[in-house]
Amino acid sequence: MGKYAESEEWEDVVPIPQNDGGPNPLAAIAYTEEYSEAMSYLRAVMADNEKSARVLELIQDIIQMNPAHYTVWLYRASIVFEIKRDLLLELEWLNPISLKHLKNYQIWHHRQTIMAHVQTLPPNELSFLSQMFAKDVKNYHVWSYRQWLVRHFSLWDSELPFAESLLKADVRNNSAWNHRWYIIFARNVDPTKGSREDADAVTVEPGIIERELEYTKDAIRLAPQNQSPWNYLRGVLRKKGKGLAELKEFGEEFADVDREDEVRSSHALDFLADLYAEQKCKERAGMALELLVRRYDPIRKNYWNYRRSLLGLKDVEGVH
């Protein structure tokens, strides 16, 4: 007999076993006996819509065996609210599970569901997220949750130093660059309107635009072959409502199409190709793209030649 079958606490429940399609199923999943028993009891209490402390403990047992079972997480959340469990205790219970299963989406969905009912930001929440980032600084689920947290509790003003600290530690942290953009440029964007046009329509103070341009240029000078700040730079210029031309001199710090051996960044060549095309300098744009094909990014030669074709230029051969 199993753990629950032997328990007096569960003697009133008639378990419902897994139905895999008869006595000889074609492809039955080889669950452990412990997991099969726990799930059979969960099916029974869910059929009766029982929401109690003992079911929370049952679900905890199942989550330890299978933390990706989304139905179990959804039912747990409904019980937490039904029995008015202390939400801070629920968050505390989640912490070690989150640290153990770093890439589990269901854990973070549950955390957000619980946190949405918490009135003020718990004092240890951000420090816990720092623990998560110490494990994996580019964990998508943690970043998505943190951005939701910033918006939900209006943490915009205090969040920028955090993003800057990450970029100071690693200027190549593309997740931190994305978070910086979110903090500065998504603050007044309605998240229910997801189009680029809606986001671009939100204005930003000119002083902030200029600050971000200078910050990004400094970051590029630290690591010219880092694509993230080049992308960020383009985004800031778009927010400014200007083309790329005002940063021609800056781009040419890292790539002069007339001095092939002195190119310091393939991303600068990409930037300059677009800049020259904006200025109707088709020949120089083609030279930048040719350098990418022949020498600085031949793995994507088909893409660069496609860009040349948009300018009416012929393909060039890459390195053989």
Provide key terms for this protein:
mainly alpha; 61% helix; 320 residues
Brief digest:
This protein is an all-alpha fold.
Order of helices and strands: HHHHHHHHHHHHHHHH
Structural class designation: mainly alpha
| Overall outline | elongated
Reported for the largest beta sheet, the result is: none
Helix content: 55-70%
Residue share in β-strands: under 5%
Q: Residue-averaged pLDDT, rounded?
A: 93
Distance between the termini: 68 Å
Q: What Rg is obtained from the alpha carbons, in whole angstroms?
A: 27 Å
Tally of strands: 0
Unreliable residue runs: none
Account of the protein in words:
The protein has 320 residues and is mostly helical. It is built from 16 helices and no strands. The model has no long low-confidence stretch (mean pLDDT 93).
List the helices and strands and how they pair.
Layout: H1 33-47, H2 53-65, H3 70-82, H4 87-100, H5 105-115, H6 125-135, H7 140-152, H8 156-169, H9 174-185, H10 196-200, H11 206-222, H12 227-240, H13 248-251, H14 266-278, H15 282-296, H16 301-310
Helix pairs in contact: 1-2, 2-3, 3-5, 4-5, 5-7, 7-9, 8-9, 11-12, 14-15, 15-16
